[in-house]
Amino acid sequence: MNKKVKVINQNEQFEDENILSMYLKEINRIPLLTRDEENDLARKASSGDAYARNKMVESNLRFVVNVAKKYQNQGIPLIDLINEGNIGLMNAIEKYDVDRGYHFISYAVWWIRQAILKSICEKSRTVRLPLNRANELLQIQKMQRKLLHENGEEPSALEIGNELQMDPTLIEDLLAISRDMISLDAPVYGDPSNSTVGDFVEDNYRSADDILMTKALKDDINQALTILSEKERDIIEMRFGLNGAIPMSLKEIGELYNLTKERIRQIEKKAIERMKQPTRLTALESYIA
Length: 289
What we know:
Blueprint: H1 17-28, H2 35-46, H3 50-59, H4 61-69, H5 78-95, H6 104-122, H7 131-151, H8 157-164, H9 168-180, H10 208-225, H11 230-240, H12 250-257, H13 261-275, H14 278-285
């Protein structure tokens, strides 16, 4: 495979579905990185090593496809969604800090989704947000990025509110408005970088109660995951959408690991059985209605 970054050229025509099929077959032949390989390449990439950066991009292209598929049938061809997602993937590599200890793809998913969502929203409605609210939204989204970079996962409205001394309910409302009503081409006034509000769109909105419950559940689940091997843990995270992963089918996960759907099912079953230790199960049972 060409060592250059595989971002699909927007000027090319993809009327022939065979071209997309060929692209998917090509990227599926690229082996996944081990955690050690990923960490080594990430350190080199952060030091300006272009080969390491491109290697990280190529090895994660199939993840972009899986995310892009979740946003099909919204008026944008899949190949264009993949192209936008690839740009988000490259942005993630530039921001990723390997020494914080979290898995790269869990961090990158946020950037991939943001790039795709921005593209979708730019081609849809353009109702203006009042300027004072646009400035508040800018503060929220900047803090959201900062906390994501520091912690490796999407911050809750409560966490953002604590940093900005803002009401979490207001934060939730503004994020909801930004998805459905804001003009993404409208400039955010007072921002020296000439950002538009479209640069800061989020797609995940929860009530304050849900945020608190989800955080507690996440902590207990992560504790239960510690007994699993790295592969088992990654498969469980991708299967159930944990720690920023996009929920995937057995078939989709199998394609990532070049394993059959049945083999992934076996690994998943074994991992769940290991997590059913009495002490760990008791902690999780309190969340089950």
